[in-house]
Amino acid sequence: xxxxxxxxxxxxxxxxxxxxxxxxxxxxxxxxxxxxxxxxxxxxxxxxxxxxxxxxxxxxxxxxxxxxxxxxxxxxxxxxxxxxxxxxxxxxxxxxxxxxxxxxxxxxxxxxxxxxxxxxxxxxxxxxxxxxxxxxxxxxxxxxxxxxxxxxxxxxxxxxxxxxxxxxxxxxxxxxxxxxxxxxxxxxxxxxxxxxxxxxxxxxxxxxxxxxxxxxxxxxxxxx
Length: 224
Hints:
Blueprint: E1 3-7, E2 13-17, H1 29-78, H2 104-107, H3 137-141, E3 145-147, E4 164-169, E5 172-180, E6 190-194, E7 208-211, E8 216-218
Antiparallel strand pairs: 1-2, 3-6, 4-5, 6-7, 7-8
């Protein structure tokens, strides 16, 4: 430590300790560790909240995109005698490889400002890409959302399927048959939904769904 000379009354010089130039003092190691521990505790408390906030934002973006897709499907139906499109469930694995159906993203491309036949959107973010899709569905299939192929070619808002039959006595045609219809309520019939559980919501499924009646909601699952 530097010292300053001071003249004593008897003529001798004495040394006095000098003060630090900045007028302060350095942190001790213990004080520094305490500060680090406090910061770590605060970060641990804030990170889960930030994670939940981010998940809610991604979920909201997904819901908004599905709502846009639902509107596009209705616009398509209006241009095609009220018929829904026919598309593949998994374009990379068509049901009939000899006659593959188009991808739903290509069918709806002109209704959403999208470049058909590609996975490139005309704007910076594709409406077909769920922001929480980290499993590459968009890259592989052109969309993070799967099309309900049970509706291929059906009239939109129709409430039942074509007539089918059921053996009254299983395996025995002589036992008689009966015709029946499968009811398709628009408010519970999905048009498009997440391929995967991109938005986990235990114990429910983590999928969002665009329903035939136009609303978008989480997939409703039941124990049955």
